[in-house]
Amino acid sequence: MPPAIPSPAGPPAVLSLTARKSTSDAPQAAPSSMPQLSHYLSLEPPQLQFLDVQRHTRYIQAFVIRNLTCKAVRVRFLPPKSSVFRLAPHVKPADAVAPGLPLQVEVEYLFSGALTDRAGGAGGTKGQARRKDAEGAEGHRLGEEDIDDVLVVVTEFGRVDVPLCARSPCAVISYPTRLDFGKILVGCHSTKEVLLHNAGSIGGTFSLSCDDLKTPGLQVAFAPPSATIEARKSLKVRVEIMAQKDEQRRATGGAFEERVKVRLTGVSALDGRPPAIELRGVSVTERLHCLVGTEETDAVDMGRLYFGQSRKKTISLLNDGPFPAHFRAQPQPSISQDDLNPSPTPLDNEDPLDALIRSAVSSSPSTSLVSISPCSGTVPAYGELQISVTLTTPPYVPQKGFFTGQQMEAIEAMQKPIDVKCIVECEELMQTTSLNVRAVASVPGLGVGPADRLVFGGCPVGERRDRGMTLTNRHAHLPLTFKIDKVTSIFSSVTHGTLGPLESLPLVVTFLPNHTGPHVKPLTIRYADTLYSMHLEVEAEGLPSPLFAAKPKLLPKTTTKGGLDKTADDLAPQYQYVREEDAVQMKRQKGGPPTMTRLMKKEHWAEEDNKALDSLLQTMQMSQSTITVDANPFALGTQQLRDKIVNRQKYTRAMRHGGQAYRRQQREAATIKKQLEQ
Known about the structure:
Blueprint: E1 13-16, E2 41-44, E3 48-50, E4 57-67, E5 73-78, E6 85-87, E7 94-97, E8 102-109, H1 124-134, E9 147-155, E10 158-166, E11 173-174, E12 178-185, E13 189-198, E14 204-209, E15 218-223, E16 226-229, E17 234-243, H2 247-252, E18 255-265, E19 277-284, E20 288-292, E21 295-296, E22 299-306, E23 310-319, E24 325-331, H3 352-362, E25 370-373, E26 376-379, E27 384-392, H4 405-413, E28 415-426, E29 431-442, E30 446-449, E31 453-460, E32 465-473, E33 480-484, E34 490-492, E35 496-499, E36 504-511, E37 517-519, E38 523-527, E39 532-543, H5 568-571, H6 580-585, H7 596-600, H8 607-627, H9 638-677
Parallel strand pairs: 1-4, 3-10, 12-19, 22-29, 31-39
Antiparallel strand pairs: 2-4, 4-8, 5-7, 5-9, 6-8, 9-10, 11-13, 13-17, 14-16, 14-18, 15-17, 18-19, 20-21, 20-23, 23-27, 24-26, 24-28, 25-27, 28-29, 30-32, 32-36, 33-35, 33-38, 34-36, 37-39, 38-39
């Protein structure tokens, strides 16, 4: 409220102040007690304040008394004790208030330089005592114009005290007296702002302190702790509180209540000591827990696996607090800087599995054996979030060179423990949790017996040769999957399956040629989820068959006839195994056995070629005489067929030499033409 401007001469100036209710911008006086009078009379406003008063200036404020009854009520006024307050001249000391009508009462304030008590006043003695007590207040202003008094309204129902206060220009600083932080995390900072407003006409200074803390482990800080607030200005103060980790406070629930002392400078001394600010809240603990199933753990055991395989497990992040928690998970590099620069050749006396892990991790520092998905996110309050951890091991590739069977068995028997450290971080909770991913990796071992190659020998086209083979899993703890690839003319009784630890599986491999000539494709066996492969050399040859025998059945018979209904096929053996003496006596010729096409393309014949031609012609003649029922009139005899082959050979030789001569002539003509052009 702006101060009044005194008149330069003559009687004192009169400044009318409109009555208003008390707000936070003005100093609060003690509320008036109206026992049982609220049902009969209403008084608005309950107190009168004269702010920024000056000497020789009259100030007027009014309050209204309203009769709430259905009959007239007589009121009487006891004037204030001090001489600076008085009722307006037109206000009667006693008056009657009609039913339902208001009565306006005006009070004047005028300070002329001397403060005296009025005889018969109602509140002068109390106001003088408060002024005398406030004269020694440090840092507070106490002008001669400052005074508190009381106007008493007496009715037939009782009496009502109307507080009167006058203040010279000073700072009027208001602020909230309670600050509730709610739930705060132990070990984390929590911040709230306090707004201090100066509604006075001059600047004031404040200072906040909280030295005597009753709660152990609680820290309170202010920013700024003290400052000056200009007139009609506001200032925000940040209050930062932190509850340190304390097991005792965690057991007692964490509730705290502290008082902040407030010291003000430049305010009126009659307003009393400024109230303290109460800090309330509850400190709670919150953590992220890594659960595997229902148990909390700091390690994820992937078990045993082969090199090259991947293993995936799902873990849960549990938040036991009332606030959402943001996390970030990543594997931590577990190799040194020297390992990031691997040598081009293996180190001396180095474990081959150690070299494998070193080369896999150091090949790209950004990659790791462990991947986490999702690697970041938010765990809701009192909630749970599932993440997947995947361990991927590098496949084992044997080094170049010769390895004996004992060396390979020793490598397969090795077990490499893998331990990768992962970090789960939460900045809000200032928590870092270590999660170790552990596994034991091995090299798979598949044994093939009785030999590492399949020798079938020669087999006529249309017949079959069978040979037994045994697959063995050499690992003592892990099962092993296998799959046999399809190869022309080679069939297996079992094409895929799973071998238990140290389990052996006998099977039968069949060679069923559909053409003459050697079999050159190896038999490939893939194992350990097709990550590794083994190639078996096959020594077999398809021979010309004198008879076109029916194609034998590969699968065993599902139904058999019994009794007298059996036939010769029912009594025939299911397999035709290779005789060892036939396999040993097999002699593989370079380029395969002789054929008609190969003989016709030959330029120079030897004695062996003549014998081979006679054998082929004899085989074809026997085939025609056995299979053909009626003689073919267009079929050539043995001598005619030989002449045809010889003529075909001469024709091929002539075409080959004629083509070479023709190309030679073309080149010579092109050379002569080029020389003529030059």
